[in-house]
Hints:
Blueprint: E1 13-14, E2 18-21, H1 28-34, H2 38-43, H3 52-69, E3 73-79, E4 85-95, E5 100-107, H4 116-129, E6 136-141, H5 146-154, E7 158-169, E8 172-182
Parallel strand pairs: 5-6
Antiparallel strand pairs: 1-2, 2-3, 3-4, 4-5, 6-8, 7-8
Helix pairs in contact: 1-3
Protein name: GNAT family N-acetyltransferase
Pfam family, one: Acetyltransf_3
Amino acid sequence: xxxxxxxxxxxxxxxxxxxxxxxxxxxxxxxxxxxxxxxxxxxxxxxxxxxxxxxxxxxxxxxxxxxxxxxxxxxxxxxxxxxxxxxxxxxxxxxxxxxxxxxxxxxxxxxxxxxxxxxxxxxxxxxxxxxxxxxxxxxxxxxxxxxxxxxxxxxxxxxxxxxxxxxxxxxxxxxxxxxxxxxxxxxxx
Length: 189
């Protein structure tokens, strides 16, 4: 079973440079600031304008509900030493029967070009394939998002297909590249 049934206590994961930990109410101002970024608003289905109540709902109700229900595993990414918010990483749509989940992330503008995405994907996928017992992670990226495609490819994900009009972001249909990352010893199916 991918996530422990009871209790679902979010772990803290670190590589000494970044830490993935449960969201805290005090993270809301950082989320609000990060989600004002034009790139985050372009690539992700966040509300525009992004308001304080959106950030508060994300770090408080949404993240707790995801862990409690077992549907997801959202993490705040912070600097391992200073604790400053760097981004968000998480698993969603966890399918316990098949051992599959979607891995998603965003990195705040002030934390880019510091390998935060690469480190976060490695931390969460190691945990997902180890402790959580998953066998497959799907990463859904717009094919024109060159930076995110490079991150998932460096992580070892394999491009499976491009699905036309798979997502709608800010009222626009978007093609999505579906990548798969498999647990070592598993084959891409």
